[in-house]
């Protein structure tokens, strides 16, 4: 029996969950690039007697290493180059107000407002906003070399080094990353088929949703610019679209009656063979997969879908059947720019985050630039890293930042104390740089622990404070975390419904619309509309799931309530799956539901959405009652389960 004091010493679940390393392979190519890109500039700087110049180039390379997350080479150019330009602008503005007191406070506060607002546009804009503010803080806090154009030029040079290293293999691997991503989606479909009818199905489906999101994001980002000029891209999109009917059939196979047993292994094996063909770029006649004789509507749909996908993959023509567009082509650049500007200027979330970040940076910079205490730019630097809610919970990031910085300082202490400045910096940096890509995928605390000694070493080459800056930097980090928690978290309480409830309610309402669309229209021209709606719904549910996962890493009451409502998210995902499966079965011979049955289910979902939106109590009794043997019986069961979970009292 554990001692009574043991429970008090046990860390809370939200903290242990945040500290648990994620399972992720080590990206060895990125490890090698980081080592070369950060160490080589120091070698050149040391050889030429300009170690400070080398440190600035390595700082630019560090930013590019962190931002190099894309698969396709063209997207890597975009993901690295655009944030680097914002970072150069940031250091240029920050250097102009170095040591200028209140002027530095005002300028950095305005930059923080802009940085926070542009972060709401998208992933690349978020990283760009981060580097804009990050480098402005560095420029205002460190003595940088003259003339004014030299620091931004050196930072851009560091980013260029990483970009060149990342693109070295492009001529030898044209199209390979895109093919690998689509092939990975087909393998995720095969994993889903293997899990059909088992408890692992829901996890495999979520992994497939992430894979589909990633594949479509990658291909559609290029399609917006090159659709008419790239037959290879059109062909990959056709192959990816051909996987969707297999996904739909997998949902139907998952709901097969238990007496049919597990799905035969020939089905996932056939899909894995298609994945190999996509990855290798094979075309032409392919062996017909030997699939079992269909035993019902689900397996008939599966055989038909796999056969169609195999035909599309084998055809050398870009889009052999000119299939109806299941996704919709991205809007024109001008339209997307207007949408981004509208979201930037008129969105309440954009202004709210910008003001939160500006307040925190303003307070940090007052402490650094005005109040007569020996604090450094690391206070504002810490605030910049912590106040990124699109990267995770502000609360958990503040805690993890403090822990990660402490570990990073333990690594940096022997380096700054025992390693003489000069040529020894080069091998030390080559080793430390490898930790950044290796640990970043494990979690935020691990990334912080890897980045901290690198930044300290580079900073020491500019301000020459040596070992004596270790403890002050820890204090600065703790102060920055405290400012983020007080001014960026506790002063901006968001109600549960503003943050989670409204988004979940909207997803449930969209699910009701999808049910209506799935069963009140016939096959044919409406199928692309259904596919687009379903993909958008899965993406929205994925975003809701991510927000819940961020909330789960926070202390009570937010974390406790997220845990209590988590089953509702899972139940809604199952409703969408069941709707898709039922539609597939109907198209292959299952009974067709009546309009009254469809109306009853949609009313139940609409009632659930309204209860989630308003917070009113929801009784366990549904407003519509269906016969247990009706065509939508399985779907009605899932809806009733979701309503039962939502009716339970929340903590």
Euclidean distance between termini CA atoms: 29 Å
Shape: globular
Radius of gyration: 27 Å
What is the chain-wise order of helices and strands?
HHHHHHHHHHHHHHHHHHHHHHHHH
Fraction of residues in helices?
over 70%
Could you state the oligomeric state of the chains shown? Answer: single chain
Structural class, from helix and strand content? mainly alpha
Overall domain count: 3
Average pLDDT, rounded to a whole number, is 81
Q: Please report which band the strand proportion falls in: under 5%, 5-15%, 15-25%, 25-35%, 35-45% or over 45%.
A: under 5%
Largest sheet: none
Helix count from the secondary structure assignment = 25
Low-confidence runs of at least 5 consecutive residues: none
**How many strands?**
0
Structure, explained:
By secondary structure, this protein is mostly helical. The chain folds into three domains: 299 residues, no CATH class; 140 residues, no CATH class; 152 residues. The protein is 73% helix and 0% strand. It is built from 25 helices and no strands. The model has no long low-confidence stretch (mean pLDDT 81).
